[in-house]
């Protein structure tokens, strides 16, 4: 077993990457999966911002495939738009790799689209570079059956697979921080998420 998979996520060491949350990719999913997926990613991004966790955001070939969805784009700091990704792995593109390295973080939580392509390529690239890669099972997607196949492949390769709820509690860790996050983001949860 990979010793990195036996520890909790540490918010002081984490980044939350939102990969290619674009309508172009969402439109490939069953209709009932689209909005709940975006809501979970959006909510987790709000938690990350409340805890001052860096948020690298990418969009694949933005001029061709369109911008990241409005909810995600609105959370980005002014003047820092989603990075235009022209390769499938975020660590394989020089400007995105530089942004990843500049965070000084070594645990990367991956969300977004598509699980079997950009999320998988990003996870593997991060692992090869010595980072810990964690995939949020319920905050990434691909059209069936590709999501499930990708999750099995990632798990076999030593990528930690967890859930939005698991990530949240790893980051929060105590009741004082829980109260702080709730005060900053409110108590509303995305559909289907229970805490």
Structure notes:
This protein has 9 helices and 6 strands, in the order E-H-H-E-H-H-E-H-E-H-E-H-E-H-H. The protein starts with 13 loop residues before the first strand and ends in a 10-residue tail after the last helix. The chain has helices spanning 23-26, 31-50, 62-65, 70-73, 94-102, 115-128, 146-156, 164-172, 175-185, and strands spanning 14-19, 57-60, 83-85, 107-113, 132-141, 160-162. It has a single domain, classed as 3-Layer(aba) Sandwich (Rossmann fold), CATH 3.40.50. The model has no long low-confidence stretch (mean pLDDT 94). Strand 5 (132-141), helix 7 and strand 6 (160-162) form a beta-alpha-beta unit. The protein has a 6-stranded parallel β-sheet, sandwiched between helices. With 195 residues, it is an alpha/beta fold.
Nearest-angstrom radius of gyration? Answer: 15 Å
What pattern of helices and strands is seen along the backbone?
EHHEHHEHEHEHEHH
Structural class determined from secondary elements: alpha/beta
CATH architecture: 3-Layer(aba) Sandwich
Give the total of domains: 1
Largest pleated sheet: 6 strands, parallel
Poorly predicted regions are: none
Strand order across the biggest sheet?
3-2-1-4-5-6
Structure keywords:
alpha/beta; 9 helices; 6 strands; globular
Task: Show the helix and strand layout.
Layout (H helix, E strand, L loop, with lengths): L13 E6 L3 H4 L4 H20 L6 E4 L1 H4 L4 H4 L9 E3 L8 H9 L4 E7 L1 H14 L3 E10 L4 H11 L3 E3 L1 H9 L2 H11 L10
Parallel strand pairs: 1-2, 1-4, 2-3, 4-5, 5-6
Helix pairs in contact: 6-7
Could you give a short description of this structure?
With 195 residues, the chain is an alpha/beta fold. It contains nine helices and six strands, in the order βααβααβαβαβαβαα. It has one domain (11-184): Rossmann fold (3-Layer(aba) Sandwich).
């Amino acid at each position: 077993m990979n010793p990195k998979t036996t520890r909790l996520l540490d918010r002081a060491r984490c980044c939350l990457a939102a990969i290619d949350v674009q309508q172009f990719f969402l439109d490939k999913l069953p209709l009932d999966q689209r909005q709940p997926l975006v809501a979970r990613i959006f909510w987790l991004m709000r938690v990350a911002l409340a805890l001052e966790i860096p948020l690298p955001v990418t969009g694949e070939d933005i001029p061709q495939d369109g911008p990241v969805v409005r909810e995600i784009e609105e959370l980005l700091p002014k003047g820092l738009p989603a990075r235009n990704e022209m390769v499938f792995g975020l660590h394989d593109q020089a400007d995105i790799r530089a942004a990843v390295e500049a965070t000084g973080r070594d645990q990367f939580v991956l969300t977004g689209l598509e699980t079997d392509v950009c999320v998988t390529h990003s996870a593997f690239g991060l692992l090869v570079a010595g980072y810990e890669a964690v995939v949020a099972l319920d905050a990434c997607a691909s059209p069936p059956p590709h999501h499930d196949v990708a999750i099995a492949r990632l798990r076999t390769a030593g990528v930690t697979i967890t859930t939005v709820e698991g990530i949240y509690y790893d980051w929060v860790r105590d009741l004082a921080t829980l109260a702080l996050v709730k005060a900053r983001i409110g108590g509303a949860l995305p559909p289907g998420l229970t805490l």
